[in-house]
Write a structure and sequence with these properties.
The protein has a four-stranded antiparallel sheet with strand order 3-10-8-5, with helices on one face. A four-stranded antiparallel sheet has the order 7-6-4-9, with no helix packed on it. The protein is rod-shaped, with a radius of gyration of 27 Å. Helices cover 18% and strands 31% of the residues. The protein is of the alpha+beta class. The longest helix is centred in the middle third of the chain and has 13 residues.
């Protein structure tokens, strides 16, 4: 293999996101590696959640059974439930110092913003799918939410 072929291979590797290239034939063996050769370690960053003050840990174990019944209880409340379409962080207002989008008892129109769910630094506005009255706000501001978590209990109008 001549220098011209080697330059062409190096150019091909650097112009793509290939990090390692190996070519072997009867006469030659070429290995091109890009990036650092030091061992790479994976570390998980700590996840910061903001929780409201809770009861002592000893009281948490007996409360586990009623917590499982909580989603059923929310549906038994008068009205429909609006759930989170994505995993993220629930925000009631567009900014920390701004007024919340909605309050309990407020009547909202179809398409009106109810809250924001932040996912990977993207602010996703959650809108009302129909005209309704807010019966209950089920999540606290800056609380993590999962897909399908109940955000609001509403009454269709």
């Amino acid at each position: 293999m001549d220098i011209k072929d080697l330059k062409m291979l190096i150019k091909m590797v650097t112009e793509t996101d290939i990090t390692e290239f190996e070519l072997e034939n009867a006469d030659d063996k070429v290995v091109i590696k890009r990036g650092c050769s030091a061992p790479q370690f994976q570390m998980q960053a700590p996840v910061a959640y903001q929780y409201a003050p809770a009861a002592p840990v000893a009281a948490a174990a007996p409360a586990a059974a009623p917590a499982a019944a909580a989603p059923a209880a929310a549906e038994k409340e008068q009205g429909d439930v609006l759930t989170s379409p994505i995993v993220g962080t629930f925000y009631r207002a567009p900014a920390p110092d701004a007024a919340p989008f909605v309050e309990v008892g407020q009547i909202v129109e179809k398409g009106q913003v109810l809250c924001i769910v932040e996912a990977m630094k993207l602010m996703n506005e959650i809108e009302a799918e129909f005209k309704c009255k807010i019966v209950k706000i089920c999540k606290e501001n800056a609380q993590p939410v999962e897909y399908g978590d109940t955000l609001f209990v509403v009454e269709k109008l």
